[in-house]
Specification:
0% strand; 152 residues
Length: 152
């Protein structure tokens, strides 16, 4: 290879070398973008809409999530068309765009999941008066654990 220490130190890459580098970059970026989209879909699948967080459902950017998912699929399609033609250099901008859109999709999905979880915790049904009996139970448990360690 041109970068070996026994070479004449002239970095002359053949088209095979550059094609290999482009191909590896395309495969790695496609893998990362697929993983990011799967993480976003998993985050949305774990999100639950119920009566506690229903009031925050309007804040979830559903249209933007759909747009980003469509943009990722479009970039994947353009990349795969270039790969099918064995033009890996032409696939680089499309796979780079797909990776950016996939990361944005994942971030939006995770943000929406956190928004729904937090709004569910802040629902009025969860704000109950202070429970003194629970404080007595916790204090008794702490006293018994402390006495166990002190006496043994």
């Amino acid at each position: 290879t041109p970068l070996r220490h026994t070479s004449t130190h002239q970095a002359n890459f053949s088209s095979i070398h550059s094609d290999t580098v482009y191909r590896n970059y395309v495969v790695q970026s496609l893998t990362e973008s697929i993983q990011a989209v799967n993480e976003g879909v998993a985050a949305m699948a774990q999100s639950q809409l119920n009566r506690d967080n229903f009031h925050a459902s309007n804040a979830v950017p559903v249209e933007k999530l759909v747009q980003m998912h469509v943009a990722v699929k479009l970039s994947w399609r353009k990349c795969l068309i270039a790969v099918h033609r064995l033009d890996y250099q032409d696939a680089i901008p499309h796979v780079h765009q797909a990776l950016r859109n996939a990361n944005h999709f994942r971030d939006l999905a995770v943000h929406s999941q956190h928004l729904l979880r937090l709004s569910g915790c802040l629902a009025p049904s969860h704000s109950r008066p202070f429970d003194w009996w629970m404080l007595v139970v916790v204090a008794a448990a702490l006293l018994s654990v402390t006495s166990y360690y002190v006496l043994t």
